[in-house]
Specification:
Blueprint: H1 3-17, E1 20-21, H2 22-32, H3 38-50, E2 54-58, E3 64-68
Antiparallel strand pairs: 1-3, 2-3
């Protein structure tokens, strides 16, 4: 499995569906990439956020929301 494909899938999914909860996004990415575990997914989210492509917000009860940044 290529890690770049996971990043691309995250960006494309957010572009199609808009902002979503991290858990829902993880399930959608897992459908396409069976070998993705939660740790790898979170690392990819962190890298995308550091590059300024997405934003991750904390919500109530240990939930997070992720959305594309406006460029």
């Amino acid at each position: 499995m290529n890690e770049r494909l996971v990043n691309t899938t995250i960006i494309e999914t957010l572009g199609r569906n808009g902002a979503s909860k991290v858990d829902d996004l993880f399930k959608q990415v897992q459908k396409l990439h069976k070998g993705v575990d939660r740790r790898l997914f979170d690392e990819n989210l962190m890298a995308l956020e550091l590059h300024g492509l997405i934003r991750v917000y904390s919500m109530a009860r240990n939930q997070r929301r992720v959305e594309l940044t406006k460029v």
